Amino acid sequence: MRANTRFRASHLALRGLFALAIAGCGGAIGTAASGSGGDMGSGGTAASVTGAGGAGATAGPTGAAGTTGAAGTTGGAAGATGGGAGTTGGAAGTTGGGAGQSGACVPATCGTHKWACWPMPNPASSGLPNPASYTDLGNGAVRDNVTCLVWEKAPATTQGYWQDNSDHCASLTTSSFAGYTDWRLPTRVEMASLVDFAKTGDAIDPTFPKEPSGYYRTGSDWYETITGQNTSGFSWIYGMSSGLTSNAYAKTTGQAYVRCVRGNGSGEGQGVFAAPPPNQYTVGSGEVTDNYTGLVWQQADSAAPSGATVVPWTGAADYCSALGLNGHTWRVPSINELGTLVDEAHVAPAIIKATFPNTKYGAYSNNWYWASTKYGTSAYGWAINFDDGFTGYNSGTATGKAGGPAWDYFTGAWVRCVR
């Protein structure tokens, strides 16, 4: 067993006093095409100047995109006004096109549930891109208007082991809960998409009821569970009160709540490695564009050039604002956004190494990456560790229970900027 496995076990033990939650996931908000609007109605032929009644007036053509562009079905009121009625028809077509812009949520079909194939929501109050937006469907389910995932509104009120949690989601499918028959455990990155990191104690949008305090199960097994290197049956969990994420929670001995999810096509099973979506990244000029989330990342990090040192949380924003890579404006990513970089199919580092070479990692170290997010109103800053992709904030002590530093003891971290 790798040495950092011990870290993960203590990771959970030290966090037993508060529930997990991370700030983290197919398709952008529906962008139905704008209606082209109707052509201007040709009006009627001028009708006779004697006002014969506009019977000869040809109504203007209905607007091409307008569902209401019936146009001059009333004919001209009198010869001279027949053309005017036709013009109204064209205007109605434009209105129809505008209505189309609201669009419907278009689910992702990229073939994975363990990568974000959609823009990562950020809390509406954060001022960051992709503000979270939800619709209560009124049938016990809530739709995320950014990810297009549909969630069970109220989670199960009792905790259970992994099988209990899985059975709960299966029962929703059997009963066609909210009219759907494809409910399942959410994955790590899907759970991340729900977290409102601007809040503590109940870190979720008020569209959902107040969360029971505790861990929340996911449908993502840890890498070493899938490979068989670790026989404890660890899987990823979240909590909806603090923002902590861990891969070290046993499926058969650790109890957790569950909020089931559905949507966005087919994806990997619980014990199947995460499969990157097709054409996930475009790399060029020191930048990496995620073609699904829309985020553009600095390919290197603050560790370059060689000899650079970690920075305090307060220095992360200064680093990104001064970056100036390719003339763009850069910022520190949110903890949700950082979670989209985690490659569950690898560890040490848990990131696609060919795309992000030289990424730092390592438990009990300063090899963390800062997020722009603070833990509530505290002085602690959130960060992610690509040893496995777990999250934490720098509240630990130099001497932990095992004699070494606490797993969440880090005095500085690296920075990878985003735009």
Mind explaining what this structure looks like?
With 419 residues, the protein is α+β, with helices and mostly antiparallel strands. It has seven helices and 13 strands. It has helices spanning 4-14, 82-100, 162-174, 188-192, 223-227, 313-321, 335-339, and strands at residues 134-136, 141-144, 150-152, 215-221, 234-239, 245-250, 261-262, 281-284, 287-290, 296-298, 369-374, 381-385, 390-393. It has a four-stranded antiparallel sheet, with no helix packed on it. It has a three-stranded antiparallel sheet with strand order 4-5-6. It has a three-stranded antiparallel sheet with strand order 8-9-10, with no helix packed on it. Strand 9 (287-290) and strand 10 form a beta hairpin. The protein is globular and about 60 Å long. The model is unreliable at 1-102 (pLDDT under 50).
Features:
3-stranded antiparallel beta sheet; 4-stranded antiparallel beta sheet; 14% strand; 13 strands; alpha+beta; 419 residues; 16% helix; 7 helices
What's the short version?
The chain has 419 residues and is an alpha+beta fold. It has helices spanning 4-14, 82-100, 162-174, 188-192, 223-227, 313-321, 335-339, and strands spanning 134-136, 141-144, 150-152, 215-221, 234-239, 245-250, 261-262, 281-284, 287-290, 296-298, 369-374, 381-385, 390-393. The model is unreliable at 1-102 (pLDDT under 50).
